[in-house]
User: What shape does this take?
Amino acid sequence: MTFVYIKEYFMIHNPETKIKQIRELKNLTQEFVAESIGLTTRAYSKIECGETQLTINRLNEICAVLGVKSIELLEFDKNKILNPQKTSNTNCQNNNPLNCSYIQEKLICQYEETIQSLKDQIELLNILIQKKSSKNEKTA
Assistant: This one.
C-alpha cells in the first residue's frame, strides 16, 4: 500500500479545514482552542489557515480539545453532518442534524455497542464462575 493510497483512504485532505469545521460545529473559539494547547490565537489561526504545518503531536492536542479522535477528524466530512446517511444499526437510524450531530450519534452508538459487549462478557464470566464453583463443590 503506498502513502498516496493511504492518504486517499483516510481522506487526509485539508486537515486544517476539518479542524475549523469541527471547532465551529462545537461553537468553540480560536482563542479557546489556542489557550487550551498553549498557543497564541495568531499561531493557532495559522494552523487553521494552512500557513503552519500541522504535526501529529499538535493534531492530537487539538483533537483532545475538540473532543474527537484524530482518525475521526481526518475522516470528517461536513456533508455527513448536513446530509446524514441512515446506518444499518437500528439504534443509529435517526441521524437528524437538528437534534444532534452525526458524530455525536455515531459515538453514542459505538459506546452502546461496547457496553453491550462488556455486559455479554460479564454474563459469560459469571456462568464460567458458577460452573467452576459447582465442580469444586461436587469434588469436595
